[in-house]
User: Which sequence fits this backbone?
């Protein structure tokens, strides 16, 4: 029996707000191109049929202050908006309670994982909070955590295999450049990869204009993803062969 090769996982979390509902829809539609790329060609992955989602939430819903990069300012703004605030023992988990109907919508992206046992996928969820009655919350990036007490919206996160790092941070930089200016993330370090890609994306935007640059940059990102995925697949296949016992 061959050994399963495991790559180290890198925890990544992010915050951001996109108040423009049309921009949110355009971003989700653009990211849908990645799911098409992931499902096509030589990768032959088994993926879920429906990757876009919209989920109404039964209220009251608690929203962690950690959905914002500045939790103190977020709590102060919530109090000013007359939202109820729960003060928990751990200040990092301070939450606000939303008393009216809201929903979460977004897209789930399959990410290619080359493992010795064959192609597998993990999933990155980009989820926006729709809360038109509450500008402080509308368009926030969130993650749904179901608890015994009900639904809680937390700071979104994902555990990436290390080979996905560079490409994933390039994708986040693209999202920040064209859709979510206050998008922030933390991987091995704060805003990992941002300095490497910011000037490149800004240069493309200056040369082509915002609309053309948005699409051209994404096409380049998709091409990079496809190239990396093929490289990862071949590398995993070679490593799996090396791990087989003699005579297998």
Assistant:
């Amino acid at each position: 029996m061959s050994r399963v090769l495991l790559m180290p996982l890198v925890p990544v979390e992010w915050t951001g707000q996109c108040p423009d509902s049309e921009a949110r829809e355009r971003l989700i539609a653009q990211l849908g191109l990645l799911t098409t790329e992931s499902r096509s060609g030589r990768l032959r992955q088994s993926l879920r049929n429906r990757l876009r989602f919209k989920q109404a939430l039964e209220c009251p819903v608690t929203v962690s202050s950690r959905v914002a990069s500045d939790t103190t300012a977020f709590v102060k703004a919530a109090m000013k908006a007359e939202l109820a605030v729960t003060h928990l023992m751990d200040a990092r988990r301070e939450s606000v309670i939303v008393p009216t109907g809201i929903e979460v919508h977004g897209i789930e992206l399959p990410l290619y994982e080359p493992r010795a046992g064959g192609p597998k996928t993990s999933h990155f969820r980009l989820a926006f909070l729709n809360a038109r009655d509450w500008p402080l919350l509308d368009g926030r990036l969130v993650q749904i955590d179901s608890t015994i007490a009900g639904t809680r919206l937390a700071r979104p996160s994902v555990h990436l295999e290390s080979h996905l790092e560079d490409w994933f941070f390039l994708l986040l930089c693209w999202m920040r450049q064209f859709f979510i200016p206050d998008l922030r993330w933390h991987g091995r370090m704060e805003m990992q990869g941002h300095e490497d890609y910011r000037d490149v994306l800004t240069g493309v935007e200056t040369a082509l204009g915002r609309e053309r640059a948005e699409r051209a940059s994404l096409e380049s990102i998709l091409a990079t993803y496809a190239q990396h995925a093929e490289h990862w697949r071949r590398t995993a296949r070679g490593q799996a062969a090396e791990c087989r016992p003699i005579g297998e």
Q: What stands out?
A: The chain is about 35% helix and 30% strand. Residues 12-241 form one domain.
